Amino acid sequence: EPRGEEPSSLPRRVCIEDFREINGKLMNAQRRPRSDLENKFPHWCFEQIPDSDESWTEEELESREACSDRGYSGLLWIM
């Protein structure tokens, strides 16, 4: 947090599902449940992500193309 400012006076940061690391196969590629994230990071807004990680799969790692398409989709959401 910036020095001298109370966390409640700052705008909340927004978590967007499209802006995450590569999905799949690896356990560290699985996102925590939204409730865990909300408890750990109370000054972030997690309303834009599903309650559980619906895109993670243990069968295969997400392709680079799919990962870049997801990132592009996130940029379009900002615009």
Structural description of this entry:
The protein has 79 residues and is mainly α. The chain is built from two helices and two strands, in the order βαβα. Strands 1-2 form a two-stranded parallel ribbon. Helix 1 (34-40) links the parallel strand 1 (13-14) and strand 2 (44-45). It is flat and about 40 Å long. The model has no long low-confidence stretch (mean pLDDT 81).
Strand order of the largest sheet: 1-2
Mean pLDDT: 81
Strand content: 5-15%
Structural class: mainly alpha
Give the termini distance in whole angstroms.
26 Å
**C-alpha Rg (nearest Å):** 15 Å
Multimeric organization: single chain
Tally of extended strands?
2
List keywords for this structure.
79 residues; mainly alpha; two-stranded parallel ribbon; 28% helix; flat
